[in-house]
Specification:
This protein has 202 residues and is mainly alpha-helical. Helices cover 72% and strands 0% of the residues.
């Protein structure tokens, strides 16, 4: 037996110590941050996508001066100008979708804050801007809308409006936002603003 135990000790010395089990380290912070429960859900990602696309559509409604103040990335800025010049409903829809995709790769929060600071907190001013835009589009698309408008707006310059609308319709194929379209919007904005102030004073 002593000879047997001696052989075992000699064999153990030659074989060396038993290998230790690998130590299981704790997860790093980066690994923990990528756990499935920490990632945005499919619903959250979809909501974020819609929010970015909605902001892109709002940027298209701004005029050239407002867009310049936002300091947008060049590709996004040019795409917005292209969308403003498009008259076809389907082509405009596709361009808005493209703008929505571009919004996924920009600093969304910075652009959103700049947009909100540009327009200010007043929802009334935003609603008034949209009101002027809807009226402008109605006058352009519906020739009978002018008669209804001048009936409700006795102070409107009918001759100027007729000439301006004729010029707007002729330049619809322009590659950028039409000059006469901007002039028409500014005229309507000023006219309705003056009228609203007069009503508030009475």
């Amino acid at each position: 037996m002593d000879r047997y135990h001696s052989c075992l000790r000699i064999f153990a010395t030659i074989a060396g110590p038993k290998p230790k089990k690998p130590v299981q380290h704790e997860r790093t912070m980066s690994e923990l941050s990528t756990r499935p429960e920490d990632r945005p859900s499919k619903t959250q990602r979809k909501q974020q996508m819609h929010e970015r696309q909605a902001l892109g559509a709002k940027l298209v409604e701004l005029n050239a001066e407002q867009l310049a103040r936002l300091a947008l990335p060049e590709q996004l800025y040019e795409s917005i100008l292209q969308a403003q010049a498009i008259r076809s409903h389907e082509a405009r829809r596709r361009q808005l979708q493209f703008i929505g995709k571009l919004m996924r790769n920009v600093d969304y929060d910075s652009i959103r804050r700049a947009y909100e600071a540009l327009l200010g907190p007043s929802r009334a001013s935003i609603a008034f801007m949209h009101r002027c835009e809807r009226l402008r589009d109605q006058l352009i698309d519906d020739e009978l809308a002018l008669e209804r408008f001048v009936h409700d707006q006795p102070d409107a310059d009918v001759q100027w409006l007729r000439e301006k609308l004729r010029a707007v319709r002729q330049e619809r194929a322009a590659p950028r936002l039409a000059h006469h379209t901007r002039e028409l919007y500014r005229y309507l904005h000023k006219l309705l603003q003056t009228q609203d102030k007069a009503r508030g004073a009475t």
